[in-house]
Amino acid sequence: MKDKRAQYDEVLKQFAALAEGEHDATALMANAAALLHEAMGERFFWTGFYIVKNNELLLGPFQGTVACMHIARGRGVCGTAWERATTLVVPDVEQFPGHIACSALSRSEIVVPVIDDRGTVRAVLDIDSRETDAFDDIDADALQQLTDILALHIAWQ
Ligand code: SME
């Protein structure tokens, strides 16, 4: 199996090519979720986006099991990453106060904000794993590169 960094390099290259000339948020987020989920196989249990709409997070394109549809600002890992405009790596979801358990199978999580060129958080990328401690700086760095490509291409309304 290829190492994680090499896998991400390939994903980032493919996503940059896919994003070329595309500006639609749904289309780009849907393919980003599919590409990541497919490439990482068993490592990613749930891969998807929550989009800021009407001052809350609304479920967007994703791959994986049925998930909660609305998350308030400051609630759970996603709402906290939005509020703080920063990436959150949670090695054990049971230790995160206020974690929202969409699935009992999720044990660790990384959430990366999608920030537009004005510095506003427009969405978050949320990835869950069945294993504890599944995410580290390599994931954070690569996923931030991916959300940067995304934010740059989307024509935000
Ligand atoms: N666990 C997240 C909620 C979203 S699901 O994991 C898909 C949270 O605490 O924000």
Which class of secondary structure composition applies to the elements? alpha+beta
Specify the biggest β-sheet.
6 strands, antiparallel
Beta-sheet strand percentage? 15-25%
Low-confidence stretches: none
Individual helix count: 4
Helix content: 25-40%
Please state the CA-atom Rg, rounded to the nearest Å. 14 Å
Question: What do the pLDDT scores average to?
Answer: 96
The end-to-end span amounts to 41 Å
- Cα shape: globular
- Using DSSP, what is the number of strands? 6
Give the ligands present: methionine sulfoxide
Order of helices and strands: HHEEEHEEEH
Strand order of the largest sheet: 3-2-1-6-5-4
What does this structure look like?
The protein is an alpha+beta fold. Helices cover 37% and strands 25% of the residues. The protein contains 4 helices and 6 strands. It has helices at residues 4-19, 25-40, 76-84, 137-153, and strands at 46-53, 56-63, 70-72, 88-90, 108-115, 121-129. Strands 3-2-1-6-5-4 form a 6-stranded antiparallel β-sheet, sandwiched between helices. It is globular, with a radius of gyration of 14 Å. The model has no long low-confidence stretch (mean pLDDT 96). The site of methionine sulfoxide has 14 residues, from α3 and β6.
